[in-house]
Please model this.
Amino acid sequence: MTPAKIPSVAVLAEARRRAEQAAHDADAANSTQATSVDAQQDKPSPAAGEHEDEPDPRIGRKDKVLPARFAQAGQQLFTSQEWEAQRLAAFQGHAHEALAVGVRELGGPLEQFAIPRRAAGPRDIVIDLEYCGLCHSDVHTARGEWGSRALPLVTGHEMVGRVCAIGSEVYNRQVGERVGVGCMVGSCRVCEPCKRQDEQFCIHNAVGTYGAWDAPHSERTQGGYATSIVVPEDFVLSIPEQIGPAHAAPLLCAGITMYAPLEDLRVGPGDKVAVAGIGGLGHMAIKLAAAMGAEVTALTRTPAKAEDARRLGAHEVVLTTDEDALDAARGRFTVLVDAISAPHDVGALLDLLAPRGTVVLAGLPADTDGAAMPLVDPRTLVNRGLRLAGTKIGGIEQTQRMLEFCAAHGVVPDVEIVTAADMNEAWDRMVAGELHYRGVLDIGSLDSNLNA
Ligand SMILES: [Zn+2]
Ligand SMILES: [Zn+2]
Model:
């Protein structure tokens, strides 16, 4: 449905300029009011001049961002009431248009086109997006490997940007603040899993960030390969200022997918963790498990990845094509994270576990490939008290905890920045395992001149 009224590109550009100005003003205010910052913050406020530091190349650009929870509830940074009214008027009650990269048919090429974004409600946040990670799920979905979807389809569920506008009943967000959105943009919020902060397991199905029916808003969701998005405040995450936006993006799917099982299994010093499949997911598992204090072994069939796995933090590498090395590794690991997305023999991985050990499945093959995977012999599990588990992203609270953990431990993904023009090639390279390790779309590269 075409929205009746769409704010012009000029309104959006003005909103972006205002958001940047608000971030800048807040930064300056923060420097001079260091003692009044909310006590909930773990980190001391930056001293005046600290923002002039050289950026840390390991974690990307050190952007000027508002500290989360900077202000008291309801406090606004705006000095201009006129702008405040204009900002709300632009989004609350009015749909707007975003420029996006998506497919017009399943399996078709990625193209640029405009999509409508719904009117922001009183508890919504409008985000001006900066980066969006490329996930294997995007490709599976857009190529029809996980069933049919409404078209056109814009994928992307690892997005980071700045708050561009907030609904009139949003009290804990500031315009200009850096935020992120992961794989969900809604859930029922009243079922048992939702009440346990396991929104990903909502019995009424969490609303996927793209290609899902969002019943409360009567629309199909469209993802983060786009210049903006409108999201309920409960599904918006704070991005710690220590993590640059391009590096923060992949944490919102790949990061949480690997963090959740490690935290759930209380991985720490004394654990021997193996990671199978060193790609977008697996490379995060190595970094996270090492940061948690575990002894980490990378399992790979590619000799070229051995050195890289050590650089990522693996203490040891076992080539799965080397039968002797595999034999020596049998019965050793307390936890094995299986991030292989191609069909493979899980039973062979179970053999590598110590008694009571756990294999966690995190990679998902295409529907047709999954049926081809060999079954696990029950005796493999029973005889040594092994556990075979699955994991699926994490709840919003756990995702926020993951972001704070990554900020505190300097854990960030290895990223390759991709422009909109290179997206088709980037998807092919991701499928071929050639991206190191997570592709991230620079939203600034979308070109309204190519708008078809
Ligand atoms: Zn994903
Ligand atoms: Zn629910």
Remarks:
- The pocket of zinc ion (ligand 1) is lined by residues 135, 137, 157, 183, 253 (CB under 6 Å).
- The radius of gyration is 22 Å.
- Residues 9-32 form the longest helix (24 residues).
- The chain is about 30% helix and 20% strand.
